Amino acid sequence: MKKIISILFVLVMAIPASIASVSEPPAGILESVSAAIRAGNSKELAKYFSSSVEISLPEKEGTFSKAQAEMVMKDFFTKNPPVSFTVNQQGSSSGGSQFMIGSYKSGGKVFRTYVLFKPVSGQLFIQQVEIETD
User: Fold this and answer.
1) Which of 77, 83, 92, 125 could form a disulfide with 40 if both were Cys (CB 3.0 to 4.6 A apart)?
2) Nearest-angstrom CA–CA distance, 109 and 126
3) CATH number at residue 35
């Protein structure tokens, strides 16, 4: 009887831990994307793009292929070189999507930045990038 109770206790304790790890944003991806934005590195950022990416920038908007999206972001970073990027908020939905909202500073400008990640075959990829003047 004690053995059964011990096994049940271990199982009950393991379930919340496994659920918590699924619902939290994967820090490695968010940190890598944040670092790429902070550095203005479109090539590194593109590693996390889905096959098509919705991009909304002050000067350009549309749905782009991965390669096109990389060029669009390269153009934005060239015109607005980064001074800093800070993640202000991050979270997730019950469907597995993740998001982060941050402040991108370039010169005297501050941009509100929103990045949406969606799961594809068990991995998260950037589905949407919105950068607007704050």
Assistant:
1) 77
2) 24
3) 3.10.450.50
